[in-house]
Amino acid sequence: GAGVSQSPSNKVTEKGKDVELRCDPISGHTALYWYRQSLGQGLEFLIYFQGNSAPDKSGLPSDRFSAERTGGSVSTLTIQRTQQEDSAVYLCASSSGGTSYEQYFGPGTRLTVT
Amino acid sequence: AQSVAQPEDQVNVAEGNPLTVKCTYSVSGNPYLFWYVQYPNRGLQFLLKYITGDNLVKGSYGFEAEFNKSQTSFHLKKPSALVSDSALYFCAVRVPFSGGYNKLIFGAGTRLAVHP
């Protein structure tokens, strides 16, 4: 079956512009996560959705970052007024919940802010 | 605080030798533990998990991990390393939070380099 997909795969944007990153989770997965990974580094948790609600937004680094999820499926991560320090790979993962909890990751979106 | 630690930034091993990538955790309650692998320019792939039962868990690509409750560890192992195992490995632990929800927190990652 189809895995988690993300678009675009690469995004180059100028400092100050807004960007939208999209995640399509595995069909039927109720939980969705966004992470950020700087070059060769670990995963920085950004936000978690259960259905359409976000019980944990603790990882969003500033109010320039926001995310939404509609219909319990597709999610969009928006970064406003991008800064160079926002350059990273943004990873999305989904999980079926229940007693499994393992997350399945998409290929990521590489964001470069010039 | 609930956390997971990978004490080694990098592990070097010769092809054919056994490998171990270390992970320790700190959580309340029974731990749910995971290992993921990230190959260059690829997303993370699930390797294996421990939920309950046998302390030795077998996963993909010949990897296994041993849960040790007294040492709060979940080390990843493979009896004979391959050059193709060279990648970035992440340990993760389930963390419950208010409202009955759960999330995974990840260690910083360990880079495994297998030399021919």
Nutshell version of this structure?
The complex is a heterodimer of chains A (114) and B (116). Chain A has 114 residues and is mostly beta strands. Chain A has no helices and 11 strands.
Can you offer a commentary on this structure?
The complex is a heterodimer of chains A (114) and B (116). Chain A is mainly beta. Chain A has no helices and 11 strands. Chain A has strands at 5-7, 10-13, 19-24, 31-37, 43-50, 53-56, 65-69, 75-79, 88-95, 104-105, 109-113. In chain A, the strands form 2 sheets. In chain A, strands 2, 4, 5, 6, 9, 10 and 11 form a 7-stranded mixed β-sheet that branches. Chain A is globular and about 40 Å long. The termini of chain A are far apart. Chain B has no helices and 12 strands. Chain B is globular and about 50 Å long. The mean pLDDT of chain B is 91. Chains A and B meet through strand 5 and strand 10 of A and strand 6, strand 10 and strand 11 of B.
Q: What is the element layout, followed by pairings?
A:
The complex is a heterodimer of chains A (114) and B (116).
Chain A: E1 5-7, E2 10-13, E3 19-24, E4 31-37, E5 43-50, E6 53-56, E7 65-69, E8 75-79, E9 88-95, E10 104-105, E11 109-113
Parallel strand pairs in A: 2-11
Antiparallel strand pairs in A: 1-3, 3-8, 4-5, 4-9, 5-6, 7-8, 9-10, 9-11
Chain B: E1 3-5, E2 10-14, E3 19-21, E4 24-26, E5 33-38, E6 44-50, E7 56-58, E8 64-68, E9 73-78, E10 87-97, E11 101-106, E12 110-115
Parallel strand pairs in B: 2-12
Antiparallel strand pairs in B: 1-4, 3-9, 5-6, 5-10, 7-8, 8-9, 10-11, 10-12
